[in-house]
Amino acid sequence: MSQLPSPSVAIVGAGLSGLTCARVLQDAGFRVQVFDKSRGPGGRLATRRTDRGTFDHGAQYFTARDPRFRTIVQQWLEQGIAAPWTPALVAIEMMDDTPVRSAVGDGTVRHVGVPSMNRIAGALAEGLALRTDLTVTRARRTAAPDGTIGWTLAARDSLGEAAAIDGGFDWLVAAVPSPQAAPLLADVPTMQAQALALPMVPCWAVLASFDAPLATGFDAAFVNSSSLTWIARNRSRPGRDPRSECWVLHAARDWSECELEAPPEAVCARMLAEFRRVTGCNDQPVTARAHRWRYAGPGARSDLACLFDADSQAGACGDWLAGSRVEGAWLSGLALAERILAAAAVR
Ligand SMILES: Cc1cc2nc3c(=O)[nH]c(=O)nc-3n(C[C@H](O)[C@H](O)[C@H](O)COP(=O)(O)OP(=O)(O)OC[C@H]3O[C@@H](n4cnc5c(N)ncnc54)[C@H](O)[C@@H]3O)c2cc1C
Predict the structure, then answer these.
(1) What residues does CATH 3.50.50.60 cover in the chain?
(2) Class of 1-39+132-199+300-347 per CATH?
């Protein structure tokens, strides 16, 4: 008796949620193909490498509360691809022009990827079929000449040229921010509407390097009553080059929304000016550039761990479901994989 081929799945998005979903399904015997529009995996678990040092300019650290995520974080610690981060951490309240500092002793255990934030994504992607530099522009649920129904994808490469994606897929997973998931879910209108109802908010980041260590007296700070919300010295994280003096600045949500379409150079200058006001350090950076995260995080709460439709064999996962942040993205990818496995088992 001939065996049916194992089910195939197209996963759009190689951020933490997509990679997690991919790994679970591949380990269960699915034929998995992952696509990402960037040069490598990781999404917002991001690291920029420069000749001045590295900048973790997306997720800054992650916490683990859910027992399942705690278990996986423990594995990452044992593999040496994550480590606890214990920076000299303060909170800064801007009182008019005066920064008022207080220590942060909240007992939170913060973890980071080692030697870079996106190392975790790299490790998860090992052994997966991953096509990068490919933006999936459309997903259609269509019938093949033999009558089988499946998903076919259209894509373009990094030059904007149409790129071929061979074959159909039994399952579709949209593991991308909700506004990017919506167009891919056009053939599943209920899910598309759910994605459209969950907006995401932006965050401007600045990556600045200096010749000498800044005399800030701290490594990282939550900033309040300011256009900045967070600043961090990258080398305070374990495994980074101790000679580099690279800082990442994140702007507040409201400020980022107001300045969303502003020129990056202007954004960079204004965020650096605020950095000087907040830290009291007037050192000029050697390099500085702004990066816009258009979809930095969820703008609304969702009670759903993932979106799933058994009839159309499609689903969506990401941090805009399952409670946001790195932990939420991981839990959402896991939840969707479990739904797909359960549905495939009864077919
Ligand atoms: C500035 C900033 C600070 C943050 N700080 C923290 C923090 O301190 N702690 C924390 O826990 N979390 C933090 N986060 C959130 C955390 O990074 C995310 O929750 C998590 O990484 C999201 O993973 P994801 O898989 O849901 O999405 P993503 O990481 O966004 O992955 C989606 C992927 O899909 C790809 N993609 C999108 N559209 C397409 C398409 N059409 N075709 C192909 N590929 C596509 C993208 O390139 C991307 O790689 C922060 C995020 C940002 C931006």
Answers:
(1) 1-39+132-199+300-347
(2) alpha beta
The two counts, helices (H) then strands (E), for the chain are 8, 20
CB-defined site of ligand 1, < 6 Å: 12-18, 35-38, 43-45, 58-62, 135-136, 175-177, 180, 203, 205, 250, 293, 296-297, 318-319, 325-326, 329
- For domain 47-115+200-298, the question of CATH label 3.40.50.300 is answered with no
pTM comes to 0.97
* Atom 20 in ligand 1: residue holding the nearest Cα: 326
Q: Residue 1's pLDDT band (boundaries 50, 70, 90)?
A: low
Are the CB atoms for 76 and 231 separated by under 8 Å?
no
Task: Report the separation in Å between the CA atom of 5 and the middle of ligand 1, taken as the mean of its atom positions.
Answer: 33
Residue 299 pLDDT > 80: yes
What Cα–Cα distance (Å) separates residue 61 from each residue in 114, 220, 278? 11, 11, 22
